[in-house]
């Protein structure tokens, strides 16, 4: 199941996890069970070498959540197969700046050109979270070792092949897209933070503990900037146009903020979650956000596109055709 071209919350909503146990790793902070509904067995038909690490980690977390909620052995086995794939595909080379990473092996565009191979903090964090949960159930040390190794790209800045950027005023941010200038995608940075937290709390690694403190400080410092005063921003890329969150991502921001408050107790997370929820409840603001997203899509294609496949002009034309067939999103 996905949220469609305009990432509509009407098509898909992700809520805070209901099985989080603060005494051990059990449920995940966001409930990814909806991601499993359109899948049928292993492997997923979309799984390809050098890509798909985010949907794979989310699918595995969804299957694991089903196991936690229902005790379903088949779901656990599917989560474990996702972990096995992550173990097999992780980059392992002590002299490589991508050591510990899951490499995207083709060029993408997110505001700027990302040349292959490149890493993303989001799958690094989500994969670590999945691996450690399955490790807790199986005792298989391969999963713990792979999760620990996944932290290595967080020890390097984006311009050194890593996945973190410094935050003005102090702290770090895990970059879903390693752009220069930094894009600071909110949802990806939160998922990255949680993965580092899980490694720090579960394995007690000193580097992970220090990283966790720096990432939390960076997110806490930046989080007020995602508030437009009427809706949330998807990222903080400093050049126009502003990337206003779609209805799906706006709702996901609310869920992540509530989960962050549950984990850390910082008032700013709950205050912003309540404010974003209030925005979501006003149709005029939802309509305004949709129109901003339409305008953004016409300038910047939604999906990163391999450079050899089509021109920016062709991508904008395709987006225009999709926009012409779309309608503003209404709240359920």
Key words describing this protein structure:
mainly alpha, Glycosyltransferase, two-stranded antiparallel ribbon, 4 strands
Chain-averaged pLDDT: 90
**Do you know the CATH topology?**
Glycosyltransferase
Straight-line N-to-C gap: 18 Å
SS element count, helices: 10
Largest sheet: 2 strands, antiparallel
In the CATH scheme, the class would be Mainly Alpha
Query: How many distinct folded domains?
Result: 1
What is the count of β-strands?
Answer: 4
Q: What's the arrangement of strands in the largest beta sheet?
A: 1-2
List SSEs in N-to-C order.
HHEEHHEEHHHHHH
Which stretches are poorly predicted, pLDDT < 50 over at least 5 residues? Answer: 304-311, 314-332
Short description:
Helices cover 48% and strands 4% of the residues. With 332 residues, it is mostly helical.
Description:
The structure is a single chain. By secondary structure, the protein is mostly helical. Helices cover 48% and strands 4% of the residues. It has 10 helices and 4 strands. The strands form 2 sheets. Strands 1-2 form a two-stranded antiparallel sheet. Strands 3-4 form a two-stranded antiparallel sheet. Strand 1 and strand 2 form a beta hairpin.
What's the arrangement of secondary structure elements?
Blueprint: H1 53-70, H2 73-89, E1 108-110, E2 112-114, H3 121-138, H4 141-149, E3 164-166, E4 172-174, H5 186-203, H6 206-222, H7 247-264, H8 267-280, H9 283-299, H10 312-324
Antiparallel strand pairs: 1-2, 3-4
Helix pairs in contact: 1-2, 1-3, 2-3, 3-4, 3-5, 5-6, 7-8, 9-10
């Amino acid at each position: 199941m996905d949220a469609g071209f305009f990432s509509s919350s009407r098509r898909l909503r992700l809520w805070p996890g209901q099985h989080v146990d603060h005494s051990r790793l059990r449920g995940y902070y966001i409930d990814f069970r909806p991601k499993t509904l359109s899948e049928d067995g292993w492997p997923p038909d979309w799984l390809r070498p050098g890509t798909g690490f985010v949907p794979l980690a989310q699918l595995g977390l969804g299957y694991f959540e089903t196991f936690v909620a229902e005790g379903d052995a088949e779901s656990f086995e599917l989560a474990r197969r996702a972990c096995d794939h992550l173990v097999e595909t992780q980059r392992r080379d002590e002299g490589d700046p991508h050591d510990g990473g899951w490499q995207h092996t083709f060029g993408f565009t997110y505001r700027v050109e990302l040349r292959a191979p490149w890493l993303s903090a989001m799958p690094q964090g989500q994969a670590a979270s999945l691996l450690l949960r399955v490790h807790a159930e199986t005792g298989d040390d391969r999963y713990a070792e792979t999760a620990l190794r996944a932290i290595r790209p967080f020890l390097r800045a984006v311009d050194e092949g890593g996945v973190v950027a410094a935050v003005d005023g102090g702290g770090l941010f895990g970059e879903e897209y390693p752009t220069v200038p930094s894009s600071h995608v909110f949802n990806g940075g939160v998922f990255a933070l949680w993965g580092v937290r899980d490694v720090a709390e579960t394995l007690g690694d000193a580097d992970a503990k220090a990283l966790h403190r720096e990432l939390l400080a960076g997110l806490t410092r930046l989080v007020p900037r995602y508030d437009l005063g009427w809706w949330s921003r998807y990222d903080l890329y400093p050049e126009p146009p502003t990337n206003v969150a779609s209805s799906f991502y706006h709702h996901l921001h609310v869920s992540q903020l509530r989960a962050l408050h549950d984990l850390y107790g910082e008032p700013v997370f709950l205050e912003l979650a309540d404010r974003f929820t209030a925005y979501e409840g006003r149709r005029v603001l939802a309509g305004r956000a949709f129109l901003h997203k339409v305008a953004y899509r016409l300038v910047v294609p939604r999906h990163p596109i391999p450079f050899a496949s089509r021109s920016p002009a062709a991508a904008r034309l395709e987006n225009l055709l999709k926009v012409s067939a779309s309608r503003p999103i209404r709240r359920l």
